[in-house]
C-alpha cells in the first residue's frame, strides 16, 4: 500500500512579508501542481515553497492537494481559512492594534523551532502601533514589526524593556542567527523593529542602538531572454492575461504596480504610464510601448473595466496571486522549464534596455530606483557587457596562430 506524503503548512515571514510556508518531501507531482494552480514560489534560502498569506485560502488548498498528500495545517491559525484579498481601509485603529497583538502569538511560537507553541497573550507597548501608523508604514510592515517585536519581548520577558542594553540586543540577534538560521533580510527587519521602538517610540538616541548589520549578499537577478519573452506572449491566448504580462514587461512594473493601475493612469496620447504611490510612496512615469498600447486597447474594448485597469471578480482590482498564476501557466505552455515570476519580467525589461545601449540613469528613473547602485546590478547580467570581452585563453591561442583542436 502506497502512503501519501505529508504536506505541512505554517506561518512564516519571507522577504519582510507574512507567507504560508509549504513543506514536503521531494515530490514532483506536488511541485507541478503548485506551479499549475497556485502562485507558490520556491525560496532557496528558506528551503520551502510559499504563498503570500493574504492570498492563501485553506479550503481551496485542500481541494487542490488533498489527493496528493496528507495536509497538516495544525501550525496555522483558524483565520487562514478566510484570508481577505484586501484590507478594509475603514478598520479602526483599535481594531488594527488588537489584530496585530492577537495575530502574533503564533509568530512567537514560530521563532522557537521544535518548542511547544507559546500561547501567552503578549501586548505591544503603548504607542508602538500608533507611531508606525503615523509614520505611514504599510500594513505588511506593521504586521512584520509587530511579530518580531513580540518575539523580542518574549525573549526578555522578565526584563523591563528600558533596561535592555545594546550588547544584550546584539546577543539576541546572534542567538537567532546561530539557533534559528534567520536570513539576512529577516535579521535586518528584526533590527528595524527593535530600533523603531527605542528610537521612535521611546525617543532614545540612534547612536546607542546602532546595531551591527549583516553584510549584504549580492544576488544576480534572474532574467529571461528576448526570445523567451516572445514565446510567453505567443503562448498567452487570453487578451486580458496578455495585456497584464505585456504591461509588466514593457514598462518594467512591479506586480503591485500593475494591479494598482487605474484606467486614467495610461496616457495613450503621450505614450506614458503613470505609476502612483509605488515603492517608497513615490510616483513615477514609465513608457507605454506601441505594442502594449495596441494590446491594451484590444483588452479595454473587450472587457470594458470600470475603474482599475485590470479588474477581477466584482470589479475589484486584479489579485496579485492571479498575476503570478497566469504568467506561470503561459511560461509552462511556452516550454520554459524554470520558475518564472512577474519580477523576472521587470528584471528582463531593465537588462534588455541596457543591452540596447540605454543609459543607466534613464533605466534607474524608469524602474523607480532611489540609488544608481541598485540599477547597476543589471550590468552583471547584460550579455552586451560581456560580448566585447575576450577570454585570455582565446587571445593566447590567436596570438600564437593556434586553434582549439590542439587542446
Helix-strand category: alpha+beta
Level of helix content? 40-55%
Helix segment tally: 18
Beta strand count: 8
Low-confidence stretches: 77-93, 102-119
CATH superfamily of the largest domain: Intergrase catalytic core
Question: How many angstroms separate the termini?
Answer: 55 Å
The CATH level-2 architecture of the largest domain is identified as Orthogonal Bundle
Largest sheet: 5 strands, mixed
What's this entry about, in short?
With 407 residues, this protein is an alpha+beta fold. The protein is 46% helix and 11% strand. It folds into 3 domains: 86 residues, 2-Layer Sandwich (Translation Initiation Factor Eif1); 124 residues, DNA polymerase, domain 1; 161 residues, Intergrase catalytic core (hpI Integrase, Chain A, Orthogonal Bundle), CATH 1.10.443.10.
What labels describe this entry?
5-stranded mixed sheet, DNA polymerase, domain 1, 3-stranded antiparallel sheet, Translation Initiation Factor Eif1, 407 residues, hpI Integrase, Chain A, alpha+beta
Task: Please give a structural write-up.
By secondary structure, the chain is of the alpha+beta class. It has three domains: 1-86, Translation Initiation Factor Eif1 (2-Layer Sandwich), CATH 3.30.780; 94-217, DNA polymerase, domain 1, CATH 1.10.150.130; 226-386, Intergrase catalytic core (hpI Integrase, Chain A, Orthogonal Bundle), CATH 1.10.443.10. Helices cover 46% and strands 11% of the residues. The chain has helices at residues 28-37, 58-65, 93-103, 105-110, 128-134, 139-155, 166-180, 184-201, 226-234, 239-251, 255-259, 290-303, 320-333, 342-355, 360-367, 372-375, 383-387, 392-399, and strands at 6-14, 17-23, 41-43, 48-52, 70-75, 266-267, 272-278, 282-287. A five-stranded mixed sheet has the order 3-4-2-1-5. A three-stranded antiparallel sheet has the order 6-7-8. Strand 7 (272-278) and strand 8 (282-287) form a beta hairpin. Helix 9 (226-234) packs across helix 13 (320-333), helix 10 (239-251) runs antiparallel to helix 12 and helix 10 crosses helix 14. The protein starts with 5 loop residues before the first strand and ends in an 8-residue tail after the last helix. The model is unreliable at 77-93 and 102-119 (pLDDT under 50).
Amino acid at each position: 500500500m502506497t502512503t501519501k506524503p505529508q504536506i505541512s503548512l505554517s506561518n512564516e515571514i519571507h522577504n519582510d512579508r507574512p507567507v504560508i510556508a509549504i513543506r514536503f518531501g521531494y515530490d514532483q507531482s506536488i511541485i507541478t501542481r503548485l506551479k499549475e494552480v497556485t502562485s507558490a514560489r520556491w525560496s532557496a534560502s528558506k528551503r520551502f515553497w510559499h504563498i503570500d498569506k493574504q492570498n492563501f485560502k485553506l479550503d481551496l488548498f485542500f481541494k487542490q492537494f488533498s489527493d496528493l498528500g496528507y495536509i497538516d495545517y495544525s501550525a496555522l491559525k483558524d483565520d487562514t481559512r478566510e484570508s481577505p484579498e484586501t484590507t478594509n481601509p475603514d478598520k479602526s485603529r483599535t481594531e488594527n492594534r488588537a489584530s496585530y497583538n492577537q495575530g502574533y502569538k503564533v509568530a512567537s511560537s514560530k521563532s522557537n523551532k521544535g518548542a511547544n507553541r507559546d500561547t501567552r497573550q503578549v501586548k505591544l507597548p503603548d504607542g508602538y502601533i500608533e507611531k508606525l501608523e503615523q509614520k505611514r508604514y504599510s500594513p505588511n510592515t506593521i504586521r512584520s514589526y509587530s511579530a518580531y517585536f513580540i518575539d523580542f519581548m518574549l525573549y526578555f520577558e522578565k526584563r523591563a524593556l528600558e533596561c535592555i542594553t545594546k550588547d544584550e540586543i546584539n546577543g539576541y540577534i546572534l542567538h537567532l542567527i546561530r539557533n534559528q538560521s534567520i536570513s539576512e533580510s529577516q535579521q535586518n527587519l528584526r533590527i528595524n523593529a527593535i530600533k523603531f521602538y527605542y528610537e521612535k517610540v521611546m525617543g532614545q538616541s540612534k547612536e546607542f542602538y546602532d546595531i551591527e548589520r549583516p553584510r549584504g549578499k549580492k544576488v544576480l537577478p534572474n532574467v529571461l531572454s528576448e526570445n523567451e519573452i516572445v514565446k510567453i506572449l505567443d503562448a498567452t491566448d487570453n487578451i486580458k492575461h496578455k495585456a497584464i504580462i505585456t504591461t509588466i514587461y514593457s514598462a518594467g512594473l512591479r506586480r503591485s504596480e500593475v494591479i494598482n493601475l487605474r484606467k486614467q493612469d495610461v496616457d495613450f496620447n503621450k505614450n506614458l504610464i503613470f505609476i502612483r504611490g509605488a515603492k517608497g510612496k513615490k510616483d513615477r512615469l514609465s513608457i507605454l510601448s506601441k505594442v502594449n498600447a495596441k494590446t491594451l486597447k484590444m483588452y479595454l474594448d473587450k472587457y470594458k473595466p470600470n475603474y482599475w485597469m485590470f479588474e477581477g471578480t466584482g470589479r475589484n482590482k486584479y489579485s496579485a496571486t492571479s498575476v503570478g498564476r497566469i504568467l506561470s501557466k503561459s511560461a509552462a505552455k511556452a516550454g520554459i522549464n524554470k520558475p518564472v515570476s512577474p519580477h523576472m519580467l521587470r528584471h528582463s525589461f531593465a537588462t534588455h534596455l541596457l543591452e540596447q545601449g540605454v543609459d543607466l540613469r534613464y533605466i534607474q528613473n524608469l524602474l523607480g530606483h532611489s540609488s544608481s547602485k541598485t540599477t547597476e546590478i543589471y550590468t552583471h547580467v547584460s550579455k552586451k557587457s560581456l560580448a566585447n570581452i575576450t577570454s585570455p585563453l582565446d587571445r593566447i591561442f590567436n596570438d600564437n596562430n593556434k586553434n582549439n583542436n590542439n587542446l
